Amino acid sequence: MMDEIxxxxxxxxxxDNARIVDPDKTLRxxxxxxxxxxxxxxxxxxxAGPEHLRFAARNAIHSFRRKSPRSKSLAVELLLYVSCQRQxxxxxxxLGVEPADRxxxxxxxxxxxxxxxxxxxxxxxxxxxxxxxxxxxxxxRKLADIQRSYGVSKREMEAxxxxxxxxxxxxxxxxxxxxxxxxxxx
Length: 186
Hints:
Blueprint: E1 2-5, E2 8-16, H1 23-33, E3 38-43, H2 50-65, H3 74-83, H4 88-95, E4 104-110, H5 113-127, E5 129-130, H6 140-150, H7 154-160, H8 167-181
Antiparallel strand pairs: 1-2, 2-4, 2-5, 3-4
């Protein structure tokens, strides 16, 4: 899926049955496919929907424009906002892809639509079977994994739930809120 956010293109693609023996090498290959794109690989099991990725991308872009990033690259800044972490090492531990991971999400930002399209083409040959449904919270297990990993309690979810709102939507809002809090914590 491709979105435009503040004059940048955001690419987010889910892949199932990924066989990534060496995540660092795969990431280097993806990044070399387009030097105009900032690329990151994430564990699909901990991505809370396209809203989660769009909001993190918006915050990362704004952080760089305000000249107040926590990292040296937009790709790492995006990882920090998606993970809701202030420290790069914690963000990598939470969302970094490992050889055992079979479901991954590729996210990339670029001012060049052509760079994003080229990256999309290359990623399909490197990463596995395209499955964008992996970006969504599609199961109770994924919902529970996200809650645990991001420290969201059932009590907290009930406290902020709007009438008739489902668990998935409540959790997405809370994850986006945690991401937004990175800008006010120091």
